[in-house]
User: What shape does this take?
Amino acid sequence: MRTTMRQDLTTALKARDRVAVAALRSALAAIENAEAPPAETADRSGEGGHVAGASAGVGSTEVERLPLTESELRAVVEAEVRERSAAAAEYTRLGQADAAERLRAEAEVLNRYLHPVP
Assistant: This one.
């Protein structure tokens, strides 16, 4: 799903499809956030200086991302669709039809990944 989304983002960028670009960028960012490892508690004692065994240099503190299962990926995209649908309903209630329609269109873009047409 993620590979297809990235390929479709490239296509949307070339086509200047703002709705698809916004939806795909947001969904891919949400997936990246879901893959982030939990933050480790840092020593906040206030003491400076060298720490024995500490790493130094570019990339020395990089941590591998957590792999998501296909169902977890789907859950992230489903949450993105729900958020857009709820926000669209609120915009409609407030009389902001243009914003509501844009969010509905973004939700529809993401729905295609949840319910692909053969």
Confidence is low (pLDDT under 50) at residues 41-46. DSSP finds four helices and no strands in the chain.
